[in-house]
């Protein structure tokens, strides 16, 4: 058994690898978010508006006014990049404080997915089948890893919600791009949900953007339901991204709030 992924709790020494992973995870959706925003109706309206202002009020030739199109696209990219960079800095700061935020009490936790591979990795991880196991299963297996290297390829965290009574937030769900579609994200979500159940939470919520459809589909298959949708500003109020808040109801009836029911077609809009 030469290719293994172990889901375990965060421990000292993981900080640097976790920072690199979450940074790559956040930035990996930069392009899809950018293109999604560019092709929105509002972006086209901005292009037409700016071109009309230049033509009507400044009397510029139409050929010059057309140049507003790449200008708007450039501004959208800059705004999106700045927003993603700010998010990366925010999450990196949080990862630096994982021991205090997530590991200092019994009601929150931070997990990593750690891959064990041969020193001489001759195959692309995308083409390798990994055996997934929990930390306890790994300890009981008595597998010899003396000739293998380890690498953190996924993260997830859970903490108490300050908005929902007896509710929890699942956060920082990231999987390295080369290790996706191998069941790692599914195992990370399972561990977080099971922790919420064991600690007596009534529900576990998470937030995903409109450009992370694979993640939303994974959570829906696991029994999560849509609780609400809202727009997150990217470039002020002009450019926003639709966010989905999903909830996994553990103890129905304990919270006064009853989430609305949405169809799958609405989730994919």
Automatic annotation (TrEMBL):
Molecular function via GO: N-acetyltransferase activity
Stated name of the protein: N-acetyltransferase domain-containing protein
Gene3D superfamilies associated with the record: 3.40.630.30
InterPro entries: Acyl_CoA_acyltransferase, GNAT_dom, NAT_camello-type
Membrane-crossing segments per the record: 21-39, 45-78
Sequence ranges assigned to domain N-acetyltransferase in this UniProt record: 93-248
Pfam families assigned: Acetyltransf_7
Organism lineage: Eukaryota, Metazoa, Ecdysozoa, Arthropoda, Hexapoda
Domain of life: Eukaryota
UniProtKB keywords: Membrane, Transferase, Transmembrane, Transmembrane helix
Signal peptide range: none
